[in-house]
Amino acid sequence: MIASVRGPVLEIGLDHAVVEVGGVGLAVFCTPATLAGLRRGTEARLSTTLIVREESLTLFGFADADERELFLLLQTVSGIGPRLALATIAVLEPEVLRRALHDGDLATLTRIPGVGKKSAERLVVELRDKVVVAPAPVTAAGAALPVTAGNGASPVRDQVVEALVGLGFTLKPAEQAVDAVLADKPGAEASQLLRAALAGLGRSR
């Protein structure tokens, strides 16, 4: 298993990044939030897992080991492959996903594109006892560290729209989903904006 990769980012594609390791460029498939945190020409370290199929070897990368473990856990459920597992992590933060599985929160789970009620029920049945949920922290309202999104177009907005288009959504719905989130949460950071927009697009499909 390739547990992690570290090196300069050579390219950032719509659904993957190319990281140079020992003179070899490795294509690493990531969530939009992870890709949004990378910059071409700078060094990156990603937790990874290699999915082996008869016809391919595919490397998936994550911002941290926690996301990677959930990615692997999700695939123990029948019908959940790497792409759907990656989409799940793209939409739901790790603790939100664990809480939804623990509580049997089907409404949250069906926000994931490609997951209907039956699939959500199967996820709960098979994973409820395999996740550990931390006590809900008591925080002051608005404690999150925001990335300011200015009125109209902004680098963060444009980057998130581009990532959504890379996932297969058309430009207009992607822009509308991002703008809807920004209207409700103008100070949302990039990863929060991506997850919320994905969730909105999932509900509209």
Q: What does this 3D model show about the protein?
A:
The protein has nine helices and five strands; from the N terminus they run E-E-E-H-E-E-H-H-H-H-H-H-H-H. With 205 residues, it is an alpha+beta fold. A hairpin with a 2-residue loop joins strand 2 and strand 3 (24-29). Helices cover 44% and strands 19% of the residues. The protein has a five-stranded mixed beta barrel.
Distance between the termini: 36 Å
Q: From N to C, what is the helix and strand string?
A: EEEHEEHHHHHHHH
Judged by helices, strands and strand pairing, the structural class is alpha+beta
**Biggest sheet layout:** 5 strands, mixed, barrel
What's the CATH first level of the largest domain? Mainly Alpha
Strand % is 15-25%
Tally of individual helices: 9
Counting structural domains, the number is: 3
Total count of strands: 5
Gyration radius over CA = 17 Å
Ranges where pLDDT stays below 50 over 5 or more residues in a row are 138-152
Q: Remind me, CATH topology of the largest domain?
A: DNA polymerase, domain 1
Under the CATH scheme, the architecture of the largest domain is Orthogonal Bundle
Overall geometry comes to globular
Give the oligomeric state.
single chain
Mean pLDDT: 84
Task: State the helical fraction.
Answer: 40-55%
